[in-house]
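Deliverable D4.2, example record:
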Amino acid sequence: MKSLTFSLLVIFIVSGKLQAQDCFGMTFKPGMNFEMSMFDAKNKPTGKISYNVKDIHKEGGSTIMDLTAQFDDEKGKQRPPYSVRYTCTGDELVADLSGMMQAMQSNMKDMELKMKMNKLVYPSKFSVGQKLSDGQIEAELVTNGTTMSTMNMTMANRQVEGQQSITTPAGTFDTYKITSDMNMENRVFGMPIRSSMQVVNYRALNQILDVKSETYRKGKLIGYTLLTKAN
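Output generated by the structure prediction step:
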């Protein structure tokens, strides 16, 4: 769950007829690949997520970008791939992460996943002090018409706190530092299980993924991701 959560905050892309298209001034095309590597607080590798741009097409005035994501743990064991869709309107990038939820449900036979809320938005431009809209994912698992469990995750108090140069194996990037509070509530047969974390993302205007993402619990670093490959 943590590994998927770290990957929760990112991406965007381009065209459907194998032609490059722009999103926020960046040019993308199908076949492009990106990689996010994950580490614990002691810098020990815990896995990686490989992203591949599968399809890009226009719907009205928006560009729709479909990616597949493949998670490998630190031993190289793979989980089922999942899909991520992004809508680039020109003013906003809207993430649809329902494919990730479907992957989490893949081992739960005879259960139906219902998405009730699914939205994470990034504006086309950032400025220090800027407040961003909350993100939310809400889903429930249903079997034979009965709700077995629900999950609600919110990214609240999102704010651009500064600018910082970040160097990773993929290069050196000028980024914006975005902080947020991540609150999760899982209910199994009505019993709530709650957790809260703080997330710091470093986003560059010329990259589809966060360059770096740090996750804290009660002010203590518990893990981070780095953009390690980008073409």
